[in-house]
């Protein structure tokens, strides 16, 4: 009888430890996913460089440029990193200032909504509050 109780207690401790590890892992992964590397965003949008710099050719759904913009939307939806992506795009606007209008029109041409307007005065900090309730 004592052996059975000891095994049950050990099993219960293992289950509790596993739950703690899973919770910690989920929270840590989720928090890490909320920050997007701007180099990654820039690389994604490199397929749109001709349009961003020269305003043509117009991108349309199914082109590599629009596929990249769709990937940004997926990234925002899957990692809840809207504020981070917004800051990356504002940085690109600062870099390509003469062509910031072209950058701002990309989501519309591609039929994608990023959940914020791409313009120099956008306050990306407003989108940080959209973090998951799991974030500490």
From TrEMBL:
Residues 1-25 form the signal peptide. Pfam families: Tryp_alpha_amyl. SUPFAM superfamilies: Bifunctional inhibitor/lipid-transfer protein/seed storage 2S albumin. Keywords: Signal. InterPro entries: Bifun_inhib/LTP/seed_sf (IPR036312), Bifunc_inhib/LTP/seed_store (IPR016140), Plant_nsLTP (IPR000528). GO terms for biological process: lipid transport. Residues 38-124 form the Bifunctional inhibitor/plant lipid transfer protein/seed storage helical domain. The keyword Signal applies. One of its GO terms (molecular function) is lipid binding. Belongs to the plant LTP family. This is Bifunctional inhibitor/plant lipid transfer protein/seed storage helical domain-containing protein. It comes from Nepenthes gracilis.
């Amino acid at each position: 009888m004592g052996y059975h109780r000891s095994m049950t207690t050990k099993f219960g401790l293992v289950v509790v430890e596993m739950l703690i590890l899973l919770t910690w892992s989920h929270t840590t992964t989720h928090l890490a996913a909320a920050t997007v590397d701007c180099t990654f965003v820039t690389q994604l949008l490199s397929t749109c460089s001709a349009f961003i710099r020269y305003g043509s050719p117009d991108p349309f759904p199914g082109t590599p440029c629009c596929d990249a913009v769709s990937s940004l939307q997926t990234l925002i939806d899957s990692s809840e990193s809207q504020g981070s992506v917004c800051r990356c795009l504002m940085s690109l606007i600062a870099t390509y200032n003469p062509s910031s209008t072209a950058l701002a029109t990309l989501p519309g041409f591609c039929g994608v909504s990023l959940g914020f307007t791409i313009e120099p005065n956008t306050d990306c900090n407003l989108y940080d509050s959209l973090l998951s309730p799991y974030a500490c």
